[in-house]
Specification:
The chain is an alpha+beta fold. Helix content is about 40%, strand content about 25%. The strands form two sheets. The protein has a four-stranded mixed beta sheet. A three-stranded antiparallel beta sheet has the order 1-2-3. Strand 2 and strand 3 form a beta hairpin. Helix 6 packs across helix 7. The longest helix is centred in the last third of the chain and has 29 residues. The protein is globular and about 60 Å long. The chain starts with a strand and ends in a 5-residue tail after the last helix.
């Protein structure tokens, strides 16, 4: 799972500019922090070798609100346009980045905020209350407080819990990873078409 934190530089009539000051990635509930884009590139280059991935293997990586992350990524890392799937050109649902990192939008599956996602899927970790002051200027050299580190690390740990649920609920028993909440419902309806008891459960009545 992955996400980035950015600081606002200019907001007003002239437009909006911001810069990433920390990118975090969680693998098996261990969080890796990158403070520069060079560090992100290095991490994403090394991960396939460290995990011994074959040339055709990807690392499924959940991101909440992928369109926001993409606004930064598209200028700095290669995106496989053939793998791009989204609601529109600016609203991606999933795509492969940097050859092996398969970014997937968890917001499209949950249709909720990250805080609500943690509740819906009974995640072990919960999004921390309060918010980071995005008006405070930060850069790659800014020393982050324990509170700030806890906040940003918890975001990807929530997604790690969510990733485990997706793995156990969909990938292992059903052989697929959902792209949207609508896809989940559609597949449940397809399954119910040949199962009267399941159909009754979906519509809230007893099977005939």
């Amino acid at each position: 799972t992955s996400t980035i934190e950015a600081t606002n530089l200019v907001t007003g009539k002239e437009g909006h500019w911001s810069a990433m000051y920390c990118a975090q990635m969680s693998i098996n509930n261990r969080v890796i922090l990158c403070r520069t884009w060079d560090q992100v590139r290095l991490l994403w280059d090394r991960l396939p070798r460290a995990l011994d991935l074959s040339p055709n293997t990807v690392l499924l990586t959940w991101v909440h609100n992928l369109d926001y992350e993409t606004s930064y990524i598209k200028h700095r890392l290669p995106i496989d346009i053939h793998s791009f799937f989204g609601k529109s050109r600016t609203k991606p649902i999933k795509y492969i980045c940097n050859y092996h990192i398969y970014l997937h939008d968890s917001a499209c599956v949950s249709n909720s905020t990250l805080a609500k996602l943690a509740e819906m899927y009974n995640c072990k970790h919960r999004k921390m209350t309060g918010d980071i002051d995005h008006d405070k200027l930060r850069n790659s050299s800014t020393v982050l407080t324990d509170k700030e580190l806890g906040y940003i690390c918890n975001d990807v740990l929530v997604l790690s819990d969510f990733a485990r649920t997706m793995f156990d609920t969909f990938l292992i028993p059903k052989g697929y990873i959902p792209d949207t909440s609508t896809q989940i419902l559609r597949k449940e309806i397809d399954e119910a078409a040949s199962d009267p008891e399941l159909a009754a459960e979906l519509i809230g009545s007893e099977a005939a």
